[in-house]
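note to self: dont lose this again. the chain is below, predicted strucutre after it. 305 aa total, dont forget to put it in the shared folder this time
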Amino acid sequence: MKLVWWLATVFGISAFSIFLSNAGATDPVQNLTLTVNSPLQGALRDIASPIHDAFLGITDRGGLRHENEQLKDEVEQLRNQLASQQDAQQRVLDLEAALGLKQSRPEDKLLAADVIAEEPSGLKRSIAINRGLNDGLDEGMIVLSRSGSVVGTVSHVYKDFAWIRLLTDVDSAINAQVNIATVPPANTNVITPGAPGPQASATPAPSAAPAEPQTVRAVAKGDQRDGLLLDLLPSDAPIVAGDLVVTSGLGGNFPRGLLLGSIHNVDERPQAPFKSAIIDPAATLTGLDTVLVLVSFKPARLTGP
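---
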């Protein structure tokens, strides 16, 4: 019986509340409740906002990591493309230079090769190229730069690659010569003897024929300290900085006239039969990418009589 009365009371209160709500009688109470609770709700929201953001950051971390990995992959791909383009451009420049040298030396057969290694110890100055016995290489063959200057010689040949001894290596010795151009004296006016005054005439002296360059022979040797040294120069040789040094052709290991470099400075030796000079190599011997092997020239390997 009590249960029935309790249910009837709850039902009656509910119906009365609904009636009051529909009639608008509870609006002042609701407004007062909202006014009182609004600051509290705002404060609670401000407190909970960082926690909510942190929770979102934790839940989104996996997505951000995935996006970062995608961006890194894209950057790596773009860098690879750029590196490939730069390498292709450099290869084009190398081939163009090699083609220009071949056209300037039509009688020579040149084989292009890529540098694949450098001697790591620093005690020897050598590089390795991706050409070997299968490409017709032989020990002693001459290696040139893209512009045709001497880089070195083939020291060891294997099936698919070879080692090149640079001309600055301590074991390198090349018969060389310096071509010294002799400058003829300037023309002078010669006064023709005669009557004084207007009758005197000046006639130019006949122009002198261009003088033949003076050749001075020596030996270009690799030096651990100076790089490339021109040794056994006659003490009276008029060598000056800037003179060009080329191969002399003596000994049969090099053709004549290949450029080695230019005189940097001369080491005078008073009362000595010889003097020396430091050479600036014409070819850049560091950071080589492409070289040319002169396969058409076979070293003579001359022996003594």
